[in-house]
Amino acid sequence: MDPQFEAVELEGDSVLKLFRVQCAVLQDDHAWHYHPECELTYIIRGSGTRFIGDSVQQFTAGDLVFTGPNLPHCWANDIPSEDPERNELLVLQFLPDCLGPDFLISPDAQALVELVEFGKRGLRFTGPIVEAAADTLEKLGAQSGLGRLARFVHLLDQLSAASNVETLTSDIYTHDTRDFHGGRMGTIMRHLKENLSEDIRQSEVAELVGMTPQGFSRFFRATTGRTFVSFVNVLRIMEACRMLINTDDDIVDVAFRCGYANLSNFNRRFAEIKNTTPSEYRNQRRLLV
Length: 289
Fold this sequence. Notes:
The radius of gyration is 21 Å and the shape is globular. The relative contact order is 0.12. The chain is of the alpha+beta class. The protein has helices spanning 26-29, 101-104, 110-119, 128-141, 145-161, 183-194, 202-208, 213-224, 228-246, 251-257, 263-274, 278-285, and strands at residues 4-5, 16-23, 33-34, 38-45, 48-52, 55-59, 64-67, 73-76, 87-94, 123-125, 165-167.
């Protein structure tokens, strides 16, 4: 299912939007969506499944997650409820350049620039920063004017300095595919996508782009940050994820069409990359529908 664009309306002339959500079913309140604003979400009360890009994880109270611009996201409850106070969240939204484009080129803003950049893959914070950030969010909501702005900058500083941070999406999910459209990588990507169901040999792809096997191996790792075999496995599992969400095909058929003749091997690779089974992934994603 494609994510929906959400138009965020800021509060008057404010550079940010802070609001509290209370609802019975999170996915009814906010479906699978994206927006150009950065977002910090703190779960005060509630539990279920969190979807960030291609990341699928469980969440409980105390979950603190930062999502960068245009990164699809959604929180979903696993069990139906009619309790309107079952979930409670604090959500902060702001544009990356909300403090002005000149601010971002200042050396003092380097930590913020890095936070936004890393946030494009989704960040989950744990440890002391969670309680500290939650306290700052609560105080931010009670302030206005310069005091509110100062508290906001303080929060950004807290997040930028945090040490217990988990990146959520796979590295390939947020890779700018425009880099792959031309030259050798364009040829390689087209070949891989057209032949995912086949036996893809590195030596044949190297020959396709006129490189020796050794030179190709060095080039590919330098360009993608992965070995060729690892990259192909990620592509295959990403295609499997798409099929699991958008079709009712049997898992064995999905595995075969993604290049896995052996179901056990497919399940093993899927678990390595997605930290769940294909059937669990399909069930979790369909909570969004």
